[in-house]
Task: inverse folding
């Protein structure tokens, strides 16, 4: 307990092993946990392999969770053992309530990039759904980590809602939309380069500089937009438009 207070759980992990007598001991500290945590909190698209047979995480007062790699094994919450997590945002009544906003988001992106480019890849509906839900998940995780309580009200009816201190904040939704458009276009440019200029059978040996620049500019734009989203999500008080 004393050692754990000196270890930042965001960046380090205590490694527990057995000695020659089979007794538990703290073997040492393992760094690089920050990359694992950013992936779990959906702030990164990929995460590293975690060391050990399983990982135990103190998630609150009297609450310990157990994971194997990124798979949830169980959680002891005071005197209750939880053996599965509910994906409330991925399916069920909460997900159904979010669907109209998600479909509106998909339609905006499709209209901006064009139907032909959007339909070249069959996964875009699912990808944009994951992106939208991931953004909402990150907001909820941020509220939880902030530690002061909070709630997110999802409603398509504004009548009767009265906010004492409202804040009009469309930046997050604008950034998510812009990032989605850039992603579709970047993939489209990459596909065109691969299909028309990297396959010998096509007979094209000269890659147009404009096409190459379009792909690279999209890459830079996506990186900048991801940083913008990261900063917007961490704003403590906000109003998000769909």
Result:
């Amino acid at each position: 307990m004393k050692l754990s207070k000196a270890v930042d759980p965001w960046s380090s992990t205590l490694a527990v092993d057995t000695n020659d007598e089979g007794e538990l001991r703290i073997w040492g500290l393992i760094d690089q946990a920050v990359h694992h945590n950013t992936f779990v909190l959906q702030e990164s698209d990929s995460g590293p392999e975690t060391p050990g047979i399983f990982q135990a995480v103190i998630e609150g007062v009297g609450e310990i969770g157990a994971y194997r790699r990124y798979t949830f094994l169980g959680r002891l919450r005071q005197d209750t053992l939880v053996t599965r997590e509910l994906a409330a945002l991925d399916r069920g009544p909460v997900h159904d309530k979010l669907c109209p906003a998600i479909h509106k988001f998909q339609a905006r992106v499709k209209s901006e990039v064009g139907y032909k480019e959007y339909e070249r890849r069959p996964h875009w509906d699912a990808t944009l759904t994951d992106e939208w839900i991931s953004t909402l998940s990150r907001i909820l995780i941020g509220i939880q980590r902030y530690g002061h309580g909070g709630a997110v009200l999802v409603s398509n009816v504004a009548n009767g809602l009265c906010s004492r201190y409202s804040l009009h904040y469309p930046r997050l939704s604008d950034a998510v939309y812009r990032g989605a458009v850039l992603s579709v276009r970047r993939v489209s440019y990459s596909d065109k380069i691969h299909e028309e200029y990297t396959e010998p059978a096509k007979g094209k040996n000269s890659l147009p500089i404009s096409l190459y620049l379009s792909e690279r500019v999209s890459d830079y734009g996506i990186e900048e937009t991801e940083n913008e989203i990261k900063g917007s999500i961490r704003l403590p008080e906000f109003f998000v438009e769909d």
Q: What stands out?
A: The CA atoms of residues 5 and 14 lie 11 Å apart. The longest strand covers residues 24-30. Confidence is low (pLDDT under 50) at residues 236-242. Helices lie at 2-5, 33-40, 93-113, 115-119, 124-146, 171-197, 209-233.
